[in-house]
Known about the structure:
Largest sheet: 9 strands, parallel
Strand content: 5-15%
Radius of gyration: 21 Å
Distance between the termini: 49 Å
Helix content: 25-40%
Number of helices: 10
Strand order of the largest sheet: 2-1-3-4-5-6-7-8-9
Number of domains: 2
Low-confidence stretches: none
CATH architecture of the largest domain: Alpha-Beta Horseshoe
Number of strands: 9
Amino acid sequence: MSQGASPFLPPELEREIFEAAAVLHPESALNLQLVSHRVNEWIERIKYRTVADRALPTISCRTLSLLGAIRSNSKPASFFRDRVRHLFVEGLSDEVLDEILSACSEVQSLVLFQTVGHVPSLGATRPRRLSLYLHDLSEDGDSPRLSRPIFAFVTHLDLFDFVHNNADKFVAELALLPALTHLALWQNSMRSPELTDLLARCSRLKALIQMHGSMPLDPAQSVDDVRFVAMIVSDDDYPNEWAIGTEGGVDFWARADAFIAKKRRGEIKPSSRCYIEAEDGI
Length: 282
């Protein structure tokens, strides 16, 4: 093509192609930005959408790159607020985490794959999907409260804590969460009678997942409720599961929904089974 030639494709289609390339091959985003000024603007709009500090599917920006861009003050305050939608945090100091969340307060999917201390900006976030150690939100030795604003819009909540003290209070607060439909708890965090009580009192729950780090699953931990699913998701698998889910792929939440739907249709045998097997096709 000569230097003065016009593009062969309409701008809308050209933009769709470049954005799709950046999403499907996030490692190519930086090179794509060098193609032209207009392509740089298109890619920059999605470059910061999904952020983590490790190589994962769908990740186009690492955490420290995001931090550097925030500190450069080259963008208006609304830039990162409006663009960062999925954030996976691990190995950050409280100060750095607070700095990032202050700029990315509209994050929709937030995983705190670490313990956190005093992070004031965390309370200003309103994620739809949230994974964290609930105990990190306790203050002065008091039990953490699910009534905090951070939980107001959460639909999918994954709690990493292994033991919940005062289960009755915990369940009572869960039942008051207005948007919660999916809950994941780790193995041994609650006993079977407490899980049964949780499902009875949280009528809006569509799925309760009991996470196991490895085999075997304990049949004795089964709960007689179609919404209960026991599932193996190791610490190594978890980040990939999250990344797949950010693009609408089949993550552990989606597999639980599919299993529950099959169970409601009577396709799971025996009907008391609460864990997924290979022949389920999920």
